[in-house]
Amino acid sequence: MTTTAETYHVPVLLTESVDGLDIQPDGIYVDVTFGGGGHSKEILRRLGRNGHLYSFDQDADAEKNIIDDDRFTFVRSNFRYIGNWMRYYEIEQIDGLLADLGVSSHHFDDESRGFSFRFDAPIDMRMNKRAGLTAADVLNNYSEAQLADVFYLYGELKQARRIAAAIVKARMEKHIETTGDLLDALNVPRSLFNAQWKKDLARLYQALRIEVNHEMDALRDMLKSATGLLREGGRLSVISYHSLEDRIVKNVVKTGNAEGRGQQDFFGRTSSPFRPIGKVVTPSDDEQQRNPRSRSAKLRIAEKVKSEK
Fold first, then answer.
1. Is residue 138 part of a domain?
2. Cβ distance 141 to 212 under 8 Å?
């Protein structure tokens, strides 16, 4: 099947996330997760002639979806470097930033990328295929302690140590290169490949993907830069898919930093550069039926507040 922008990725919470930006026709906006371009196209639809959108993506496949519009600039880069790129384009402040975190539909459906255990394919998981360790490299080269930490911290797997031990034992006889190799290492019987196994494997794959792509560090760096770039009244609109991402976004909105360590005044009130806009938004039942990827999505919207001097 030929990949198009529509099949590459179905945008989640499209209307709600772009509404949250409160688009100003002549404003400057950033979509840090371009993917299939769904959110970017909607932002451009609402921008006036003098507005501009910068969209980031480190995946070469996403470049096939670049939009032909004078108001649009595609940036081939990890979004953690947004600060550097805005300086390059001589942009001092932006009016809004949108992020749809996690993995696109395209990544899950392309077996050659190794993001899904649905396929017996090489376990790669790199968002940027041009550089970095693959998930197979992690499985075969990390120490048992390092693997256990990755599985526990990023997959929240209670049996992280047992999984790590099984992998280290198995790789002494054969390198783990494919999903089949990993299932064999964990002694997963194909006849008992049930819902619980799938849930645990999804967490394991999530942990590997986060480690390979340094996702948590990149998210922290991006949000820190975004906090400085947003002008007063500017909007932050972020869609997250698991508790690790959401915790970082929530902390930034609440305290201004990823760790959640806000500065308190004499009365114990915590100050933050952001003001939450509304409650956390989740997809409607209808959207969840149409797009299963959206089921775990949470949208947080915040506004940059006027600094007190």
1. yes
2. no
Strand bridging mode 298-304 / 274-276: antiparallel
Identity of the amino acid at 153: L
pLDDT digits (tens, 9 = 90+) for 234-251: 999 999 999 999 999 999
Q: How far apart are the first and last CA of the chain?
A: 57
Count Cβ neighbours within 10 Å for each residue of 250-268 and write b for 16 or more, e otherwise: bbbbebbbbeeeeeeeeee
The verdict on 116 and 201 lying in the same domain is: yes
Helix, strand or coil, per DSSP, at residue 148: helix
Instruction: List, in sequence order, every residue forming a beta bridge with 236; answer none if it has no partner.
Output: 97, 302
Alpha-carbon dihedral angle through residues 271, 273, 276, 280, given to the nearest 10 degrees: -100
Residue 41, in any domain of the structure:
yes
The pLDDT value recorded for residue 163 is 94
Last residue of a domain, one of 213, 228, 259: 213
Rounded to the nearest 10°, the torsion over CA 292, 298, 303, 307 is: -140
Do 15 and 98 belong together in one domain? yes
Structure pTM?
0.89
DSSP characters over 24-67: -TT-EEEES--TTSHHHHHHHHH--TT-EEEEE---GGGGGG--
SS3 state at 290: helix
Chain centroid to Cα 292, Å, comes to 17
Residue 169 structural domain: 111-213
Q: Write the pLDDT tens digit of every residue in 176-192.
A: 999 889 888 988 765 55
134 lies in the same domain as 180: yes
Look up the CATH number of the domain holding residue 133.
1.10.150.170
- 170 lies in the same domain as 48: no
Q: What string of H, E and C letters represents the secondary structure of 219-262?
A: HHHHHHHHHHHEEEEEEEEEEECCHHHHHHHHHHHHHCCCCCCC
**The residue type at 283:** P
Which residues are bridge partners to 100 per DSSP?
Answer: 239
